[in-house]
From TrEMBL:
Organism this protein belongs to: Chryseobacterium indologenes (Flavobacterium indologenes)
Protein name per Swiss-Prot or TrEMBL: Histidine kinase
Record-annotated Signal transduction histidine kinase internal region domain positions: 168-242
Keyword Kinase among record annotations: yes
Any matching Pfam family: His_kinase
Residue intervals passing through the bilayer: 9-28, 48-68, 80-102, 122-144
Length: 357
């Protein structure tokens, strides 16, 4: 059975059970005034039977109207025109059951108005009562079904949104790996031209970082200690090339196994090298401070840069990471300070808040 049809069956079955219980209770309560001489057990038994009989009228009416309502391609006015004979037939069936079966055969009495005036099969007041009883029931059924459809649509839209975000994140991560690899291979190429002794070591470190990017980054989350380890490996690669680089790395983590989205932090470090250290002529430095306390993550990275950096830098990494943060951690706080000769990045994330996951 399809999920939508299965959901409809369960919801409507529950509705009819609750509706039947409600109607039995109301009619049982009313019967003690209409038939005060009957024993309560007999009245309850009669009420259970007569409400089952009413369902034989109400259920076909409800689903006939619901079928027309959901019928695609039918003109609205044609639907309204078809509603009329269906409702009229239902009212007649309701009256027939009430007048000729319930009163003479279940209660053993003649149907009356207010317990005094005899009522015929067709009477304006009793026909109106039947009509209101049926319309009230139809309104409940329509309300239940429309609410169910809206909730189902909301779930489907939420699922589509989640799938779309997952696809977008996958695309963003796919952009990260080639970007990082391109930069590092350029570094290795330059070292190879100079026949630098550190070239094999850089290649080994690169393989470790790429292994992390390929296998670990494919996961939705990773422990923060592994993410930090990946940053340290990346810095070691860059330090071999930038031998005059000053690096300070401080971390204060109270929960090393706290999970974060992979490759979130490394992009700021990559940008610090590509658009800062690599373009600096004077003193080169990168200062990194990472803190995690009670689920509040704070990340600060400061790096040197030229006073007038090249204007053709695309800064793909920073644009990429901004979008990832918007998707994964909507309530994050990210500030980038562009000073005269250095950049400062501040990032704060409440990892206790899972609204973006």
């Amino acid at each position: 059975m399809e999920p939508d049809r299965k959901s409809k069956v369960y919801v409507h079955l529950l509705f009819w059970i609750l509706y039947y219980i409600l109607e039995v209770y109301l009619d049982f309560y009313w019967s003690r005034y209409q038939f005060p001489g009957l024993d309560w057990q007999i009245r309850l038994q009669n009420t259970v039977v007569l409400e089952l009989g009413y369902l034989l009228v109400k259920v076909p009416l409800a689903y006939s109207l619901l079928y027309l309502y959901e019928k695609i391609g039918l003109n609205r006015f044609l639907k309204l025109f078809l509603y009329i004979p269906i409702i009229v037939l239902a009212v007649l069936a309701h009256r027939l059951f009430t007048h000729y079966i319930i009163y003479p055969h279940i209660y053993g009495a003649v149907e009356t108005l207010d317990g005094k005036i005899p009522s015929g099969f067709i009477n304006g007041l009793v026909a109106f009562n039947s009509f209101m009883d049926l319309i009230f029931m139809v309104g409940l059924v329509f309300g239940v079904e429309i609410t169910r459809q809206k909730n189902l649509l909301k779930e489907q839209l939420s699922q589509l949104k989640t799938e779309k975000l997952d696809q977008e994140l996958s695309m963003l991560k796919a952009q990260i790996n080639p970007h990082f690899l391109f930069n590092t291979l350029n570094n290795i190429y330059g070292m190879a031209l100079k026949k630098a002794d550190g070239t094999p070591e850089v290649i080994l470190q690169l393989s470790k970082v790429m292994r992390y990017n390929i296998y670990e980054a494919a996961k939705k989350s990773i422990s923060i200690e592994k993410e930090i380890e990946n940053i340290r490996d990346f810095i070691q690669i860059q330090q071999i090339r930038h031998y005059d680089l000053e690096v300070s790395f401080h971390e204060n983590i109270d929960r090393p196994l706290q999970e974060v989205s992979p490759l979130i932090l490394i992009q700021f470090v990559e940008n610090a090298f590509k658009h800062g250290v690599s373009e600096s002529i004077g003193q080169k430095f990168i200062h990194i401070d990472i803190q995690l306390k009670d689920g509040i993550f704070r990340y600060r990275i400061e790096n040197s840069k030229e006073e007038k950096p090249h204007g053709n830098s695309t800064k793909i990494g920073l644009k990429n990471i901004r979008r990832q943060l918007e998707l994964l951690y909507p309530k994050h706080i990210l500030t980038v300070e562009d000073k005269k000769n250095h950049y400062i990045v501040h990032l704060t994330i409440d990892l206790n808040d899972t609204s973006g996951h």
